[in-house]
Amino acid sequence: MTIPAGARLGAYEVLEPLGAGGMGEVYRARDPRLGREVAIKVLPEALAADLDRIARFEQEARAASALNHPNIVTIYEIGREREMAFIAMELVDGKTLRELTASGAMPVRRILGIAAQIADGLAKAHGAGIVHRDLKPENVMVSRDGFLKILDFGLAKLVESESGEVSAMPTLAQPETRPGTVMGTVGYMSPEQASGEPLDFRSDQFSLGSMLYEMTTGRKAFQRKTAAETMSAIIRDEPELLTKLRPDLPPPVRWILERCLAKDREERYASTKDLARDLASVRDHISEVTSGAEAMVSLSAKSRRRALPLAVGLALLALGLATGWALTRGFWKAPSGAASFQRLTFRRGLLGNARFTPDGQSIVYSARWGDALRLYLTRPESPESQAFEFGDGTDILSISRTGELALLQSPIPGPSGTLAVAPLTGGLPRQLIEDVPFAGADWAPDGKDMAVVREVQGASRLEFPVGKVLIDTGARCPRFAPDGDLLAFFEDGPESGSLAIVDRNGKSKKLLSSGWGSLNGVPAWTPDGREIWFTAAQEAGHAEALWAVDRSGKRRLVMRVPGVLELYDIARDGRVLLAHHTIVRSLRGLGAGQAKELELSWLDDSVAADISSDGKTLLVNENGEGAGPKPSTYLRGMDGSPAARLGDGEGLAISPDGKWVLGYRSKPEGLVLLPTGAGPSRNLDVGGLKDFQWGAWLPDAKSIVFSAAAGAEQTRIYVQAVADGKALAISPPGVQLLRLTNPVSPDGKHVVATAGGKRAIYPIDGTGEVRVIAELSPEDLPIQWSSDSLSLYFLHRGEQPTRIWLLDLATGQKQLWKELPVDADQGIRVRLTPDGKSYVRGGISVLSELYLVEGLR
Q: Which of these, 27, 32, 41, 24, lies nearest to 77 by C-alpha position?
């Protein structure tokens, strides 16, 4: 019976039939609860009385759902509707392997890519004591982006696992298959299967070998006129020689295939993991292997006799490449008791987040290898990564035990984005919640709900489930304990960060470790739940190391290396995903009268704060390890002469007469005047204001303008005379200065500020109209006034190369002023004199490497 479109099976709405699948009919359906499409397999009502078939149908669902692997189809639900049984599973958008092989033999690279994924999925099933017993091209789906899914575990049988122990999965109880019963599909059976003998995991290896033969040659290995004759051939005959049908096939591929098709199961692989490893090794080194094989094939008959030693050598080379790499797998093993580091990424760029897949065999990570952040999938045994088709600006937050991805989508780089979910196999992400920050969500261990951090009215609020507030402000990067009872999270304070835990009801919060200058990555629980590991630095600007803290708050250092470490995840077996970042900050400028740019960096973290109007002096802030425990302010000549340290704190602006620098200090918080020559520094009395954002001088060098807050008020703009003056507010609450070279117009009448995300020009005397700069987008960053106070220089963030534009405030016209070289990836900052003759440009390049680490204690 065909089920019509619009009919319901449980909570699912049937959309259209997809055809037969194993023992049932398959339909495309929609799950209205999660807004996703699924595949529904249904047994027809006519078969409902067949209790054995019903039992096997339910067995299929239980067997598959007990597994959790990216190459095995995900089961969502098993249910009944009237007299019909059904299972809901992920919908794979792609083609069956049967459809892909219809046109004949495949290229070697694609064969190996498919076979390695099948073997990897089978290895997971076999490790759990499950044999598929009906592996064939119809039961393998390949998605449009190349990911593979094994379907139809309807004939799966609980057997002794590869380790010799009987699996104890309670979900796999089923009627016992009687000895002598032949089950499976003729043409892909193993000899023992065709003979009705007891089966183990090596039967699936033979079936895979039959499929591999068909992909390689374009014909079936044991095709005969009748099913009986085909079964007899499987038991007694050998397939036609591969060297005859596919002479270009690399020897290592032929050897793997022939081993899988051995009649005696003892001659096949002792572990399907070994089979998967060999396939992956040859796949990853196929160019090296085929170079030797192609040389052998291309020899003429006469030259073959002359070059026999060469041919033997090439064959040995191919064998060495295939087996040697399988042994080492690119893994540097440290001496006993030390950690081992395996590098997983090899391109130049910046990593985002990374997470293990539920089985721990694959890694999903984000990286900005070019101009945009993208999501990738990789495996430890392969140097290659596959890109997801989720679009630019997609990051990974968490992966549920059922393979559901929690994603952060932010096409325009910023501090937050939109939380979305999508299957690990790909598809269109479904957006859920806006204003979620970096690493701001984690699936609960049961895979049903997520803990989410949301930005609500400027506060980072931790919710679990969504809508129930556990922590009302300051929380970020939540991570569940293995048992799901506790959440670890970072908490940002006004001067330092902390690591805390809270129960899932929000009633018992405990601070475990505090006083950190910086906390990056995420807190990750050890598999036993006794410790939380995290990467942090005790002083802001210093490199983060790997630390551990137990539930009582006892802290220890796990590892410190040169450069920055960032922790992403810990697998169930204790392996660690860790990034190593090398940060390179550049600072180059063109001073007055100079013909070319000069390097103007001083210590390890040089940031340009201001440039004097004559283009001769640069104000530099140092916030890294070279500056020590506190930020430091320096003056340096634009001619590259040595820098002079002015004092602690952050420099904001050079006075128009060049005698003073306006600075900011956090302890105690306030503004300070630093002399550029001899004399003491001077603290300014700002009447108890706090939360200073930025400051600048007025043209007369007698007054300053700055952003700050009074008490619980929002930030305002204030003007104050430096000689015993009082801070006077010139803007309403919610307004703050933009970090321009000098936000004050050269005529001293206006400042550029921002309020509610909009850029606007405010009168300094507090009278007159406020002009919103509608011509500038949120990504357009003003950097300086023109000398006549009629135009603004600005750049578009994220644009490469960096272009400086000039906006005429009267007409709204934009004119390209200069295109600057780019030697940094992010944090681009330009400081410019009003006449445009001198400038300094700075930025950051972060070189990231992702490592899989074993043996950390």
A: 41
- The 10 Å Cβ neighbour count of residue 792 is 25
For tokens 């019903």, the residue is 54
Can you say whether residue 320 is alpha, beta or left, with left for phi > 0 and alpha for psi between -120 and 50 degrees?
alpha
Q: Dihedral through CA 643, CA 784, CA 704, CA 762, nearest 10?
A: -160
Res. 556 pLDDT band, cuts 50 70 90:
very high
Residue entry with tokens 């020590």 = 628
Residue by residue, DSSP assigns 198-235 as ---THHHHHHHHHHHHHHHHSS-TT--SSHHHHHHHHH
Which of 372, 371, 354, 351 has its CA nearest to residue 363?
354
Q: List the beta bridge partners of residue 569.
A: 577
C-beta separation of 400 from 406 below 8 A: yes
Q: Is the CA virtual torsion 496, 497, 500, 502 positive or negative?
A: positive
Half-sphere exposure of 76 (CA within 13 A, CB side): 22
Residues 837/787, Cβ–Cβ less than 8 Å: no
Q: Is residue 133 packed enough to be buried (19+ CB in 10 Å), middle (13-18) or exposed (0-12)?
A: buried
C-alpha span between 5 and 7 (Å, rounded) = 6
Helices (H), 329-455: none
Q: Considering all CA atoms of the chain, what is the largest pairwise distance in Å, rounded to the nearest integer?
A: 105
Mean of pLDDT values over 449-477: 90
Torsion sign, CA atoms 817, 819, 820, 825: positive
Predicted confidence at residue 301, as pLDDT, reads 34
Q: Give the mean pLDDT of 97-124.
A: 90
CA-only gyration radius of the chain, Å: 33
Asked if the model's pLDDT at residue 238 lies above 70, the reply is: yes
What is the total residue count of the chain? 857
* Active site amino acids: 134
Q: How far apart are CA 70 and CA 117, in angstroms?
A: 9
Mapping DSSP to helix (H, G, I), strand (E, B) and coil, where does residue 246 land?
coil
CA distances (Å), origin 697, targets 661, 703, 733: 9, 6, 21
Rounded to whole angstroms, the Cα distance separating 540 from 623 reads 8
- Token pair for residue 243? 């060297």
* φ/ψ of residue 327, rounded to 5: -75, -45
Is the model's pLDDT at 602 over the cut of 60?
yes
For residue 333, the model assigns a pLDDT of 37
Angle at 716 between CA 609 and CA 635, to 5 degrees: 15
Which residue type occupies 855? G
Structure tokens at 260: 């899988």
Please report the DSSP string for 13-68 in residue order: EEEEEEEEETTEEEEEEEETTTTEEEEEEE--GGGTT-HHHHHHHHHHHHHHHT--
Beta strands across the sheet bearing 404-409: 394-399, 404-409, 416-423, 430-437
Kindly report the number of other CB atoms within 10 A of residue 44's CB atom. 14
Sheet containing strand 36-42, edge to edge, reads 8-9, 12-21, 24-31, 36-42, 84-90, 75-81
The answer to whether 622 touches 608, Cβ cutoff 8 Å, is: no
Residue 123 CA from chain centroid, whole number: 26
Dihedral sign (CA 346, 111, 127, 87): positive
Place of tokens 């606007």: 760
**Is 853 in contact with 576 (CB distance < 8 Å)?**
yes
Which SS3 state, helix, strand or coil, does residue 267 take? helix
Rounded to whole angstroms, how far apart are CA atoms 217 and 133? 23
